[in-house]
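Write out this protein's structure.
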Amino acid sequence: MKKIAFYAPMKPPTHPVPSGDRAMARALLKALDYGGVTAEVVSTLQTRDKAGDEEVQARLFEQADAEINRLIDQGRRADWQVWVTYHSYYKAPDLVGPTVSAALNLPYVQIEATRARKRLKGPWAHFAQAAEAASDAAQVIFHLTERDAEALHAYGPSHQQIKHLRPFLPRVELPPASSGFGPMLSVGMLRHGDKFASYQLIADALKLLETPEWHLVIAGNGPALDAVASMMQEFGDRVDLRGSLDESDMQKLYSEASLLFWPGVNEAFGMTYLEAQAAALPVVAQRRPGVCDVLAPGVYPEPERGPEALARDLDALLGDSGARIARGQAARKYVADHHLMPAASRVLCQTIAELAP
């Protein structure tokens, strides 16, 4: 059985706070295990600097140096065959993996690494340079979206392999399907910034609905809870904020909903789209990079068309149960064909077998 060292500098899979990043890291571990690869999470050092603070970055470089020494010592006693890093980018670069891999003579692999050349100057310059160096050191980089692939191909060394790993659900089979009747559902962390922008679009679209009766359930929690609750207050009991839910409760929500409504402002891709479509929910979202990599083929409005286009899509689905159910079933088949764990496991484990025969 192959054994790899696994590291997620953005957020370790053991982190107590749920997020899409943590969910994807956990999904990767399951996919590796499914394919007969044992993955050891070798570090929980988080290198994220969300504000571009040079002092924070300097401190994290120091912590990384100490972690490197520890891991080289540990690695000499371990039987790791490959090092895999998930999600290294200019705000959370892998400051550890390339050096440890080189010292232990391990193949170095990245998953969802991104290149941001415009960040090589400015407040994240040192971190961006470290992220570029880590990407340069990788023998293989798996990209999850076509947007990431463009920069990887443009700036990567000629010998580097760039491979497509579709975002996937850590499931072998599909969950129970929704009947297509029930409330609309929105799923996303309640925080300021991009997520809040999606909630603002949701509120603006709800005001424009012509459907006389509708109900929306929002699943999520975070520091913007009060602000989102205030935003939705004018809709009264037609909007139900459920807070943070565990996996089984979330699956119940998906199975009881009629559609997923999530605009997707600056989403990397959005695991909630896969979860909803797997449960046969049609999706109302904007056509955005990353998001399009996980949405079933269809017509989605461009962001510049604003909440008016989202409201029209909602009215069309709410007013036609036949079209709603058909679109949901097509989305479910799309996930079954392209975004479940067995396919992802084959892609990952085949590459690892080639690197460590």
